[in-house]
Amino acid sequence: ANRRVVIIVYFTMVVGKCVAVGDHNVGKSALLITRHSEAFPLDYVPKTSEVVTVKEDNGVCLGLWDTREVEFGYSRLRPLSYPGTDVFLICYSVVERNSFTNAAVKWQEEVSHHCPGVPFVLVGTKLDLRDDSKVIASLRERNLEPVSFEEGLAQAQQMGATAYCEVSSITYKGVRGLFRHVSNITLREHVGSRAEGNCLVL
């Protein structure tokens, strides 16, 4: 008698966790929502922490975790969202130097303390404002200037980031490349072959 052989193949989806941290109003929420909806949130940016999910081209399903910095007492609660993170996005605004400084002295220290060894990407947000004449004029009144690409890259390398990326949620520039890199890191983390090497420019 003929025998039929049935082969069952199981596919396991890789599910990753990506957490965005950074100063208030640097654009973390807008970045995550823009990637999720592929459109800038003109009417709504959440006021409480949220999690959205996206599926990248390599099949990785990413949970994108937003965090808050200003609510009373939240600084003590925020680290509760860190366990299980595959990749951190340490965000700063390219037109806000205090946020650039805090990326290294506050946020890297916090995530490294709670999640040592977890890879992170340094992300410069609001790229569309770097060449905005009104923004530049306002900064010059305070003897300031936007953070340059070269400064951002140098800091990313000094911090030990896996990559440096500049993005604009309004124009979508750099957004897809950023999360493609995050999904690739996540995939490597889950198959046990963490990549090492120089800081990438995305």
Automatic annotation (TrEMBL):
GO terms for molecular function: GTP binding; GTPase activity. The keyword Metal-binding does not apply. It comes from the Eukaryota. GO terms for cellular component: membrane. SMART domains: RAB, RAS, RHO. One of its GO terms (biological process) is small GTPase-mediated signal transduction. The keyword Glycoprotein does not apply. Keywords: GTP-binding, Lipoprotein, Membrane, Methylation, Nucleotide-binding, Prenylation. It is found in: Membrane. Its main location: membrane. Pfam families: Ras (PF00071). Belongs to the small GTPase superfamily. Rho family. This is Uncharacterized protein. It comes from Vannella robusta.
